[in-house]
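Quick note —
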Amino acid sequence: MPFMNHSYRYARVLTIAGSDSGGGAGIQADLKTFAALGCYGMSAITALTAQNTIGVQGIHAVPAEFLKAQIQSVVEDIGVDAVKIGMLPTPSSVEVVAWAIDHYKLTHVVLDPVMVASSGDRLMADATVQVLVRELFPRASVITPNLDEAALLLGRDIPNAEALSSAAQDLLAIGSQAVLLKGGHLLGGHVVDVLVQQGDHPKRFESPRIASHNVHGTGCTLSSAIAAFLALGNVLPDAVRLAHAYILQAIAQGADVTTGHGHGPLNHGFDPVPLIKLDDKPRHPS
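Predicted structure written out below.
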C-alpha cells in the first residue's frame, strides 16, 4: 500500500464501567451514546451484571488485574481522547483507574459516581467510596452525582432546587475540579442541574420534565454524552449543554415505546451522527 503522510482519526472515547445485560445502562448505554454522537467507543468492563428493566439480579466484579489489562490494551494501541467512568465495585478497581489516568496522562475524564441504585439500594461500600473520593475526585475533569449520591457524600439531604448550588459548591470543596449536580429526582415540572467549576460562577441547566416510564440509564447516558462532546473539542460548559439537549431528545423519542416490564431505555439512536473524522498530525516514516 502507498504510504500516506497525513491521515484522520476518530474521536476516541473509553468507558470504564459495568455491563448491563439488559442494554439500558452501563457500558451498553455508553457505547450507544458514543456511536450516536459520532464518536468511536471503547470499553473496559469493571463488573458484569445480571440486569433487566425490572432490576439487578446479580453483580460479578471483574478482577482489578484484568481491568488494568483492558485499559492498557485500548490506550496503548488506539489511544483515548476522553474517558467516562461509571461503576467501580472495589477499592482496587478505583486504584487501577487512578493509576491509568496518571500513567497515560488521560484527559477529559468524566466521573459518574455510581453509588446508589434507582431503588435507593447502596451499590458501593463505604471503603470504596472513601478511595473513590480520595483518588478519583481530584483527577476527574467533572463529577456527575445525582441527589442520592450527593446526599451520601455530604451527609445531608438536598430538599429543593434552591439548595443545589450550595450543595454543588460543597462537593467542589471535597476536591473536585468541577461538579455537575443532577436534580432530576426533585419533584416538579422542571428538571434543574447545576454545574460549578473552580473559580467560576455556577451555571444552571433547566428543562421541562418529560413524562416517560423509560428513564433507565439516564445518568450513564448524560455522563457519556459529556465525554463524547469533550472528545470532539468542546469546553466543559458547552459539552454539558449539548449533552443535555441530546438526552432530552433521547428521552422524548423513547417515551412511547415498551421494552420489558419495568423502566425501559432511552432512544439513544434517534438521530445518529456518522463517525466524525478529526485531523491527525502528519505522520512521517521512521
